[in-house]
C-alpha cells in the first residue's frame, strides 16, 4: 500500500500541532485541505487515525502511520545528505522530520542539549524517562533511539557505550548537622533522614545506600521530578539526594553542599540504543551524541 506524501504530511502536522487549524498554518494550506487529506488517508486505511480532542491525539493506527511518516522524512533527509544536498527545506522548519528520543532527565540537564545543538534540520520530541526504563520505549517502537542504563541491545537495535555519569550523595551542612550527628552516617540515621527522590522509578538513592552502607532502604521521601530543582532542594536542606557531580560541583566547592559520605560516588553507565531501521539516516545524530557525551561522561570501566 502506497501512501500519498501530502496526506501523511497532513496527519503529521495535525499530531504535531494539536489541531487542524494550526496544522493548516504549518503547511500553508486551508483547514479544509487538511481535513480532506486526512479523510482520504483514513478511507485508504479503513480506520480512524485522529481523535478529535483538544489537543488532537492519534489512534493506535494513527500513531503507527505518524511514526512511518516521520521515519520516511528522516530517511529522505539522509539521502539528501548523501547526495550533498542541503538538509534544510527552503527555510521552512515544517518540512523537518520530528525525531522522538527517550532520554533520562539528568543527561538532558548535563550534556544532551550540546548534542542537539550539533544536529541540523530536525525537530526533537524528547520523552523523559529513567535510564533503567527508557529502553522500554524502543521495545514498543515509540522512539527511534534511547539513552539507557543497560548494555543489552534491544531487539532490532544497535547499542553504543557512551560513558558513566557520576552521582554524589549530597546534602546541605545544616541538614548534615541535624540528621547525621557528628557526620556519622549509619543505616539507622539514613532510615530516619528525609531523602529526595525524582519519581517512583528513581532507584539511585537506594542503589547508593546499598553500595555505601549495605542497606536497601532510605528514609521518608520528597518527590521532586526536576534535575535542577533537585540540587536546589538539597541546598535548601529539604533532604539528601543523588545529584550529578556536574550539577552539584559549584555548590560543593562553595560549601552550600557536602557529600554525605565523601569518597563514595555512584557511577551510572549510559548507552545509546538506536533502531537499525533508521541507523544509517541517524548516523549524524549518533555521532553528535557520542561527541557530546565524550566531553562530559567518564569512561565505562
Mean of pLDDT: 92
CATH class group of the domain at 165-266: Alpha Beta
- Topology as H/E string? HHHEEHEHEHEEHHEHEHEHEEH
Radius of gyration: 23 Å
Counted by DSSP, the helix tally is 12
Q: Percent helix among the residues?
A: 40-55%
CATH superfamily of the domain at 165-266: Periplasmic binding protein-like II
Q: Would you count the extended β strands for me?
A: 11
Which strand-content bin applies to the residues? 15-25%
**CA distance, first residue to last residue:** 49 Å
**Structural class based on helices, strands and sheet pairing:** alpha/beta
Inertia-based shape: elongated
Q: Classify the fold: give the CATH topology of the domain at 165-266.
A: D-Maltodextrin-Binding Protein, domain 2
Largest sheet: 7 strands, mixed
Low-confidence stretches: none
* CATH architecture annotation of the domain at 165-266: 3-Layer(aba) Sandwich
Amino acid at each position: 500500500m502506497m501512501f500519498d506524501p501530502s496526506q501523511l504530511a497532513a496527519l503529521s502536522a495535525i499530531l504535531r500541532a494539536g489541531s487542524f487549524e494550526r496544522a493548516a498554518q504549518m503547511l500553508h494550506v486551508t483547514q479544509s485541505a487538511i481535513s480532506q487529506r486526512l479523510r482520504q488517508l483514513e478511507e485508504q486505511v479503513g480506520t480512524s487515525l485522529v481523535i478529535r480532542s483538544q489537543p488532537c491525539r492519534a489512534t493506535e493506527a494513527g500513531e503507527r502511520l505518524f511514526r512511518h511518516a516521520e521515519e520516511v522524512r528522516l530517511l529522505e533527509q539522509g539521502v539528501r545528505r548523501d547526495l550533498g544536498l542541503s538538509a534544510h527545506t527552503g527555510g521552512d522548519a515544517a518540512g523537518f522530520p520530528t525525531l522522538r528520543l527517550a532520554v533520562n532527565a539528568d543527561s538532558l540537564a548535563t550534556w544532551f542539549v550540546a548534542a542537539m545543538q550539533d544536529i541540523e534540520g530536525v525537530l526533537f520530541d524528547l520523552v523523559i524517562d529513567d535510564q533503567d526504563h527508557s529502553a522500554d520505549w524502543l521495545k514498543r517502537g515509540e522512539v527511534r533511539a534511547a539513552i539507557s542504563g543497560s548494555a543489552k541491545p534491544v531487539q532490532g537495535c544497535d547499542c553504543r557505550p557512551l560513558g558513566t555519569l557520576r552521582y554524589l550523595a549530597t546534602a546541605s551542612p545544616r541538614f548534615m548537622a541535624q540528621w547525621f550527628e557528628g557526620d556519622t552516617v549509619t543505616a539507622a540515621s539514613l532510615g530516619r533522614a528525609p531523602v529526595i527522590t525524582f519519581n517512583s522509578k528513581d532507584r539511585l538513592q537506594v542503589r547508593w545506600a546499598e553500595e555505601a552502607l549495605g542497606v536497601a532502604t532510605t528514609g521518608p521521601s520528597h518527590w521532586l521530578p526536576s534535575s535542577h530543582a533537585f540540587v536546589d532542594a538539597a541546598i535548601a536542606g529539604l533532604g539528601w539526594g543523588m545529584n550529578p557531580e556536574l550539577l552539584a560541583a559549584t555548590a560543593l566547592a562553595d560549601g552550600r553542599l557536602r557529600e554525605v559520605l565523601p569518597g563514595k560516588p555512584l557511577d551510572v553507565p549510559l548507552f545509546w540504543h538506536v533502531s537499525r531501521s533508521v541507523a544509517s539516516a541517524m548516523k549524524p545524530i549518533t555521532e553528535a551524541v557520542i561527541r557530546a557525551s565524550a566531553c562530559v561522561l567518564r569512561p565505562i570501566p
